[in-house]
Amino acid sequence: MELVAKILIAIVALEHMYILWMEMFAWETKGKEVFKAALPAEMFKPTKGLAANQGLYNGFLAAGLIWSFLIEDPKWQDNIALFFLGCVAVAGIYGAISATKKIFFVQALPAILAIIAVLLK
């Protein structure tokens, strides 16, 4: 179960690195494709700065999850991973409510599965 937990944490971290890239550097191209159901096309240019700020926060989530791999104490490693996974899950649930339901399955569900794996290991 430990390997499963680490793989799921890594997937969530990689996903948030991708979100960082999309929101900070590709908001008007890839972001427009991903969020076309949640935001009118003409809103991507004026919201570029806001999206970049969101991307930075997603980068912090990825950094925290990556940091959890570098912690030697197993209890602290789990605590740090659970904290950042919890943040991702809450953000994904909020995004599903406020933007599009797809965010729950793409963002919150992987984090919730990783939380379960960490707790079961």
Automatic annotation (TrEMBL):
The chain crosses the membrane at residues 7-27, 55-71, 80-97, 103-120. It comes from the Bacteria. Signal peptide: none annotated. InterPro entries: DUF1304 (IPR009732). Keywords: Membrane, Transmembrane, Transmembrane helix. PANTHER family: BLL0914 PROTEIN. This is DUF1304 domain-containing protein. It comes from Chryseobacterium elymi.
